[in-house]
Each structure stands twice: as C-alpha cells, then as structure tokens.
Design a protein that fits this description.
Length: about 250
C-alpha cells in the first residue's frame, strides 16, 4: 500500500491507486480488471461520500468475478469507511488480510481496521443515545430544581435532534420544538421562555435560556443539566439552575 492516510476527496483517490502487483500471480479476467478500474474512476470523480456508491458496485463486481483477488476487498474497505459503513469496511479489510496474509502492508491495514472499529463503536454509541432520547416517555426531575424541566421529550426530524418546550402564556401558548446539539454525551440547546419561573420576576419575561446537559446514564436514561436564565428586557437578571432528570415511560 503506497499511501494510507485517508482524507476526504483528493487523497482518498491516491490511496486506492496502491497497485495490484500482489494479486497478479493468479489469473484475473479482463472483465474483473475492467470493473476494478471503473471503480477507481468512480472514486476519482466523487465529490461527496454519497458519490462513492458507484465505486462500491464496481469493486463488488470485480470481487465477484475474481473472488480470490485481494485488492478489490481492500478498496471496498477504504470506500465503505468513507461512507461510514464501518461494519462492511471491517469485513472487507479482514477478507483482504485473509487472501493476502503476508502482505507488506499488513500492519498498516490492521492499524486502519483498529481506527474503523473505534469509529464504529462511537457511531453505535451515538445511535443508542438517539434511540434512548427519542423513545416514548418523558423526563422527570429526580434531584435539584423541579421547575427547570425542559425539554421533557426529544424527537428526530429530518435527521436532526429536537427537544420540546411548552409555553403556557396565552399569547404564546403551545409546544415549540427547538434544535438540540448532541456531541457525544453532551447536549446543548437555547430557547426563549415566555413564562417565568416562580423564583424570577414575572414582569421581566421573556427570558433567554441556555442549557447544557450531560448524559450520565443510559440505563436508565439520566441527564445532569445546568440552565442559565438571562432577562431579555428590563432589569438584567441572570439565574442558574441545576438538576438531574430521568426518563420514565408514560405510555
């Protein structure tokens, strides 16, 4: 393998051009070579991860036509990693190692698989957290300030995480869904609150609220949150609240 650093767009093309000399000891049909080269061409013109789909099809066809040729499996692993198909990428890189156990790049391929396995673990953790947050149920305060309850529930909309805020004042009553940023186990969200907590001056509403939460447990789901309330109009007041929330099934 001539180049191993995987960087989106231009560099990934060079990685796939690593040579196929290790496989030429066996008979490889012209058709298999044609699909292999078509796969390389598809990578060259790809502009985004989604554009690698044609390359995957070409490398898969090359592997089907020459099942004991290692190189298409390597290229499949590299491209599938770029598309975040980590399970498939690991599977094909392992197949590459099985077919070419004495490859000069064996250690580098093993290192690449270790990196992909880590990414796969993080991706699975993220999906698990999303599943827990958006599952039926509601969050309740189990310690700390009971008033600072928002949001009580989450949803995915167009692939983006949102939390529900409910306003009680008549001029702005109803549920509002706000965007929530999720980074690992940390959540951040901001909103304008039109009904003040009892501990704040009701004449100073609305308040701008900034909340930072951390998922401290997934079984059961528990969030430790800190909210900062800043008066938007009139006398400036900044109040901080902290609490621990747990999700319960309310079905």
């Amino acid at each position: 393998m001539k180049l191993k650093n995987i960087i989106h767009s231009l560099v990934v093309v060079l990685i796939l051009l690593f040579g196929i000399e290790s496989s030429f000891s066996q008979s490889i049909s012209e058709e298999a070579l044609r699909h292999f080269n078509r796969g390389l061409a598809a990578v060259e013109i790809a502009k985004s991860p989604e554009d690698y789909e044609p390359a995957i099809r070409e490398f898969q066809e090359a592997a089907r036509l020459a099942p004991y040729w290692a190189d298409p499996y390597y290229n499949l692993g590299v491209v599938q990693e770029k598309m975040a198909r980590f399970d498939d990428a690991i599977k094909n890189l392992k197949r590459y190692m099985q077919l070419n156990p004495n490859a000069v790049d064996a250690q580098e391929v093993k290192n690449l698989m270790s990196k992909i396995e880590y990414k796969n673990e993080k991706a699975n953790e993220y999906q698990n957290i999303i599943k827990k947050l958006t599952a039926p149920g509601k969050l309740i305060v189990i310690s700390g300030d009971p008033e600072m309850m928002w949001p009580r529930s989450f949803r995915l909309r167009d692939g983006k995480l949102e939390g529900s805020i409910y306003h009680y004042q008549q001029h702005n009553a109803g549920r509002e869904w706000i965007p929530v940023a999720l980074d690992g186990r940390k959540l951040e969200y901001n909103f304008v609150w039109y009904q003040c907590p009892l501990t704040l001056d009701p004449n100073g509403c609305p308040f701008r609220v900034s909340v930072k939460s951390e998922i401290v447990s997934t079984e059961p789901l528990r969030l430790k949150s800190k909210s900062v309330w800043s008066q938007q109009f009139g006398r400036r007041v900044i109040v901080e609240y902290e609490n621990l929330k747990e999700k319960v099934d309310n079905r």
